[in-house]
Design goal:
Radius of gyration of chain B: 28 Å
Largest sheet of chain B: 4 strands, mixed
Number of domains of chain A: 1
Oligomer: heterodimer
Order of helices and strands of chain A: EEEHHHHEEHHHHHEEEHHH
Shape of chain B: elongated
Radius of gyration of chain A: 21 Å
Distance between the termini of chain A: 42 Å
CATH topology of chain B: Beta Polymerase, domain 2
Number of helices of chain A: 12
CATH topology of chain A: Cytochrome-c3 Hydrogenase, chain B
Number of domains of chain B: 1
Largest interface: A-B, 46 and 35 residues
Number of helices of chain B: 4
CATH architecture of chain A: Orthogonal Bundle
Shape of chain A: globular
Order of helices and strands of chain B: EHEEEEHEHH
Chain lengths: 362, 169
């Protein structure tokens, strides 16, 4: 038995775009225990409900994270709508799904690029991010923003997308699909990629359930858990939806699930565009959340289930707003995957849960 | 309604918490979240659990003196939220699997942010409020307001240089 040593990992590390710290207890290059610490950039955004009224706060919610920006504005809006009993126009629900699935595509392409960069495949990294630019271009053309879209609001969406423009988006996504197929082949078939991912960071289905893992991280271990399959909003109008699941539980499976979800999102957008009804896309909101009203809601963000909670107090300011992000739910599972792994695999393991510290430190 | 989602809020007494948690664990439900909010007389806690589509929220209020049994033995990912609730709201938990003892969040203002919490009162009494993470964080004193300088009175001193009539640059 070798001597045990504690090695600090982070908060600044090349594989981490945002600060997170791990104390790694290692023995002969093998990790025995990992103790996580976060909280370096906690911003207290939830507390801002005391200063921004419930219509203004959607702008704060969107700024929680630059990758899941639209998702947070959507999750917040849905929670407040449930709090006040607001029914959203059908066209707005479809447009929300279109933007949300585009966000998922750009988030997964970003992650796939980071993964390629982490195992030293620079060209693959650049190709992923080049494709992602197409999605950001669509954001810019439809909303005016590439990162912060300001497209969703309580009661609907801020602006419409013309049907002709929606058809154009589908054409562009179809073109992207063929290019993406080449990348997909590399991620899933290339020998060097497999050698870095297969069998690395294994998490069993039982452990994934025990640690309540969510999103692609949980689905890669066999958990059939995806909020979209409950049919909230326009997702309920999909002809069929089955979550992308793998039973391998390793880094390769997490890569596979996210890579295939990009194609699934393209299919969802195409179906939404085919079925989108004409009509209003927003409505005026009157009144304020009632005193003592409670509401909770869930949304499938690119990284997994995100939980939102709101409490009204009879004024235009919410009494409390809460976001539980997928990363905070997945930390315990990540620690489990680190136990017993090689020290050299720690960065890849951390990356394969797709940690988003901005969301977690909202 | 399109946005109607199944959600249940169940009011309980906090003494029932352990039994309720054991029930959820035995029924195979998944732990979702702990949310704290400051209310009169303490902190309102909401524990959320899910079994696929159904989402149940246990709601109860604890006074600032109470110590809550940790649920991290049954639901390991709860350690994150228990440490967070302790740091920000001053709620005390016993038996957290990874207990950061008030150092989970490194924030630029004193914690816990609930000034009525027992921890905050103790820290204030010992003059260590906010010292847990990074040393004391004194509230900056406002800059002293200087009294306006009196208008110079018309000089009658003929010995002053300015009275010589020479231009002073």
């Amino acid at each position: 038995m070798g001597k045990r040593t504690v090695i600090p990992f982070g908060p600044q590390h090349p594989v981490l775009p945002e600060p997170m710290h791990l104390d790694l207890v290692i023995e002969d290059e093998r990790v025995i225990e990992a103790i996580p610490q976060m909280g370096f950039i906690h911003r207290g955004l939830e507390k801002l409900v005391a200063k921004k009224d419930f219509m203004q706060f959607v702008l704060v919610a969107e700024r929680i994270c630059g990758i899941c920006a639209f998702g947070h504005s959507l999750g917040y809006s849905e929670t407040v709508e449930a709090l006040m009993g607001i029914e959203v126009p059908k066209r707005a629900e479809y447009l929300r799904v279109v933007w949300h699935e585009l966000s998922r595509i750009h988030s997964h392409l970003l992650w796939l690029g980071l993964l390629a960069d982490a195992f030293g495949y620079e060209n693959l990294f650049m190709q992923c991010w080049r494709l992602r630019e197409d999605v950001l271009d669509i954001f810019e053309e439809t909303t005016g923003g590439r990162v912060i879209l300001t497209a969703c609001n309580v009661g609907g969406v801020e602006q419409d997308i013309e049907n002709s423009e929606l058809a154009g988006i589908v054409i562009r996504l179809d073109a992207m699909r063929s290019e993406y197929g080449e990348l997909l082949k590399t991620f899933l078939k290339d020998r060097s990629v497999k050698s870095r991912l297969v069998g690395v960071g294994y998490l069993s289905k039982e452990d994934a359930f025990k640690f309540a893992c969510v999103g692609p991280f949980g689905r890669a271990s066999g958990l059939e858990d995806d909020v979209r399959m409950f049919g909230f909003g326009a997702y309920g109008d999909l002809a069929e939806f089955a979550p992308v699941v793998s039973n391998d539980g390793d880094g390769y499976a997490r890569c596979e699930v996210r890579a295939l979800e990009v194609l699934q999102s393209i299919d969802i957008i195409k179906e939404m565009v085919d079925k989108i009804p004409d009509g209003p896309f927003n409505q005026k909101i009157k009144g304020a959340p009632e005193d003592g009203s409670y509401s909770s809601s869930r949304l499938e963000q690119p990284r997994g289930e995100c939980y939102y909670f709101a409490k009204g107090n009879g004024t235009k300011f919410l009494e409390r707003f809460r976001i539980r992000t997928p990363t905070s739910q997945n930390v315990a599972g990540m620690v489990q995957t680190l136990q017993g792994c090689e020290l050299a695999d720690v960065p890849l393991n951390v990356l394969t849960i797709d940690p988003c510290i901005s969301c977690t430190e909202r | 309604m399109h946005n109607e989602k199944p959600q249940v809020f169940i009011d309980i007494d906090y003494h029932e918490l352990s039994q309720r948690i054991a029930d959820y664990d035995e029924r195979g439900w998944r732990f979702v979240n702990i949310c704290g909010s400051t209310v009169e007389g303490g902190v309102e806690l909401i524990y959320s659990f899910s079994d696929g589509l159904p989402l149940e929220n246990l709601r109860f209020t604890v006074s600032n003196e109470e110590i809550i049994p940790s649920v991290s033995d049954r639901f390991p990912n709860a350690f994150f939220f228990e440490n967070e609730t302790h740091d920000l709201f001053g709620v005390r938990f016993s038996g957290i699997s990874i207990d950061f003892d008030g150092e989970f969040y490194t924030v630029a203002v004193p914690t816990p942010m609930n000034p009525h919490s027992a921890d905050a009162r103790e820290a204030a009494a010992n003059n260590t409020y906010g010292a847990a993470n990074y040393g004391e964080c004194p509230v900056p004193e406002p800059a002293p307001v200087s009294a306006p300088e009196p208008e110079p009175a018309a000089s009658t001193d003929t010995a002053d240089d300015s009275s010589t009539g020479e231009e002073v640059r």
